[in-house]
């Protein structure tokens, strides 16, 4: 079997190669990649280059290995050990021996096929199309876990603020609304702010004041956004630090911040014991979220997809298999 795959050479250059696939390793599964979404974190690999095939928001169909052929699944990114005390409790995102992430330290989904450990394949229910299921990884799975953690810190949340309406920020808005939380949103990009409003958020007003929100979810990773979150959170409130960047996360050395009693929550991905609850969320709002943010493209169009993604023209480009004419057709 031959398979096409992308290579990130660095400085924004993407090349393609055709390889001959060998046997599937024991305990692994070979997936035909039906959909692989672009993520903001992939931009770092686009610039730095990667020794492995990138792409970590993967949905596909089993074509060989340790699971029945034809099984539809999404790929759980952390290659968890499955045996430590955290994994035994279902908290696989907290694996004590985690060393690899799919698409980062081992080959990912910007390819026609990908081999992953069988334990990292999450079977997709029959009533959920892969184009929706793949949003259950970073976009909805990460957002839902972060909100669940944050809600443990509060007796109630009057209104939350989401700073940054990129793919994950819009996922936070959609999940928060599904959980019954009123949401304001801020983003300097008017189109993304409009998308947040379409999901039920209210555009935020003046954020120059202090003590405005019980919960602030910072999703951009920009220093200005982090400073805003730390300024507008109320005493006793919660700042959720979801945004990633190469800059250190710092806390301001100001009298106001030193006198502010609050929680700072950092979460990573989601545990497998939340997957069923995430399917329920996707059944409620997954299709509408997909239809609002996803732009389907094929693997040869990956350089264009990234160029338009970096420019802000596309919110959530998805590479779909060549025989899928639209992302909504990736259903079986």
List the helices and strands and how they pair.
Layout: E1 2-10, E2 13-20, E3 28-37, H1 42-48, E4 57-65, E5 72-75, H2 85-88, E6 113-117, E7 121-123, H3 130-133, H4 138-151, E8 160-163, H5 167-178, E9 183-186, H6 190-198, E10 202-203, E11 213-218, H7 223-232, E12 233-241, H8 255-258, E13 263-265, H9 275-293, E14 294-298, H10 302-311, E15 316-320
Parallel strand pairs: 8-9, 8-11, 9-10, 11-12, 12-13, 14-15
Antiparallel strand pairs: 1-2, 3-4, 3-6, 3-15, 4-5, 5-7
InterPro entries: ADH-like_C, ADH-like_N, GroES-like_sf, NAD(P)-bd_dom_sf, Zn_alcohol_dh
Organism: Micromonospora terminaliae
Protein name: Alcohol dehydrogenase catalytic domain-containing protein
Describe the structure in your own words:
With 332 residues, the chain is of the alpha/beta class. It contains ten helices and 15 strands. The chain has helices at residues 42-48, 85-88, 130-133, 138-151, 167-178, 190-198, 223-232, 255-258, 275-293, 302-311; strands spanning 2-10, 13-20, 28-37, 57-65, 72-75, 113-117, 121-123, 160-163, 183-186, 202-203, 213-218, 233-241, 263-265, 294-298, 316-320. The strands form three sheets. Strands 3, 4, 5, 6, 7, 14 and 15 form a seven-stranded mixed β-sheet that branches. Helix 4 crosses helix 5 (167-178) and helix 5 packs across helix 9. It is globular and about 60 Å long. Its cofactor is Zn(2+). GO terms for molecular function: oxidoreductase activity. Residues 26-126 form the Alcohol dehydrogenase-like N-terminal domain.
């Amino acid at each position: 079997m031959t398979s096409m795959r992308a290579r990130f050479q660095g400085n924004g250059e993407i090349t393609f190669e055709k390889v001959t696939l060998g046997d599937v390793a024991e305990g692994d599964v070979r997936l035909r990649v039906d959909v692989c979404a672009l993520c903001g974190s992939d931009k770092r690999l686009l610039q730095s280059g990667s020794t492995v095939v990138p792409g970590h928001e993967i949905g596909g169909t089993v074509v060989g290995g340790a699971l029945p052929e034809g099984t539809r699944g999404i790929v759980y990114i952390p290659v968890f050990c499955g045996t430590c005390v955290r994994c035994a409790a279902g908290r696989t995102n907290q694996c004590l021996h985690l060393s690899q992430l799919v698409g980062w330290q081992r080959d990912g989904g910007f390819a026609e096929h990908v081999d992953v450990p069988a334990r990292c394949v999450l079977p997709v229910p029959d009533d959920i199309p892969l184009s929706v299921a793949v949003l259950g990884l970073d976009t909805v799975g990460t957002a839902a876990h972060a909100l669940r953690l944050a809600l443990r810190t509060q007796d109630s949340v009057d209104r939350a603020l989401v700073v940054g309406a990129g793919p994950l920020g819009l996922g936070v808005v959609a999940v928060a609304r599904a959980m019954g939380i009123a949401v304001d949103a801020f983003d300097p990009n008017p189109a993304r702010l409009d998308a947040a409003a379409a999901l039920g958020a209210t555009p935020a007003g003046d954020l120059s004041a202090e003590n405005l929100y019980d919960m602030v979810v910072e999703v951009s990773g920009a220093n200005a956004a982090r400073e805003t979150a730390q300024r507008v959170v109320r005493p006793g409130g919660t700042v959720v630090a979801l945004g990633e960047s190469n800059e250190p996360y710092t806390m301001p050395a100001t009298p106001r911040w030193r006198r502010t009693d609050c929680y700072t929550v950092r979460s990573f991905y989601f545990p497998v014991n939340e997957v069923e609850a995430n399917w329920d969320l996707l059944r409620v709002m997954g299709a509408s979220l997909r239809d609002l943010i996803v732009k389907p493209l094929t693997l040869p169009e990956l350089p264009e997809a990234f160029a338009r993604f970096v420019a802000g023209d596309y919110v959530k480009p998805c590479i779909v298999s060549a025989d899928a004419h639209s992302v909504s057709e990736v259903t079986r």
